[in-house]
Amino acid sequence: MNRIMTAAITTFVLCPALWAADIQPRQFAEKAAISDMFELEAAKIELKNGKSDKIRAFADMMAKDHAGSTQNLKDAAAKENVALPSRLDAAHQEKLDAIKPLTGVALDAAYASTQISAHTDAVALLEAYAKDGQSGPLKGFAEQTLPTVRMHLIRIKGLNSGE
Asked: Residue ranges per domain, the chain?
């Protein structure tokens, strides 16, 4: 019995798609906003101190694309009277703080790794809300943003594998 309960809890905690399925609009908007903020701030660090032209080009794309998605999220959240956070949560701030002191090749590798993780989580969140979220502007935002975030994930995985 304990093994079954442990497995169930572990699956629930480790699989963003499962916890995102029943997410409320405010929770979705907060998670999406934090994801955008993290990716924007991480991109700024890579653009300033990274070495790889390919990784820096990806970071430049992140800065541009996530600035746009942040505005789209703000617009959708406002239509649903949902306030967005103005700063990162502790977990994302910790990840950002970990890459801030890095430069060059070490930063390139750390940045790419964080982007794979961040985009995997973002795809799961957007997929779940696009599928099961409450109808409205935030669901429309999830549906509209999902293809771009999927493309980002494919691109960073390709860069990380050396393609």
From this structure: 16-160
User: pTM, whole model, 2 decimals?
Assistant: 0.84
Q: How many CB atoms lie within 10 A of CB 159?
A: 18
Helix ranges restricted to H, the chain: 2-14, 16-20, 25-49, 53-79, 90-99, 104-132, 137-160
Contact 91, 35 (CB under 8 A): no
- The residue assigned the tokens 């617009």 is 75
- pLDDT tens digits, one per residue of 125-163: 999 999 999 999 999 999 999 999 999 999 999 987 765
Q: Please check whether residue 51 is in contact with residue 41, taking contact to mean a CB–CB distance below 8 angstroms.
A: no
Note the Cα 48 to chain centre separation in Å.
20
User: What is the homologous superfamily of the domain 16-160 according to CATH?
Assistant: Ferritin, core subunit, four-helix bundle (1.20.1260.10)
- In three-state secondary structure terms, 50 is strand
**Count of C-beta atoms within a 10 Å radius of residue 51:** 13
Burial of residue 66 (CB within 10 Å: 0-12, 13-18, 19+) is buried
- pLDDT, mean over the chain: 88
Instruction: State the amino acid at position 159 in one-letter form.
Output: L
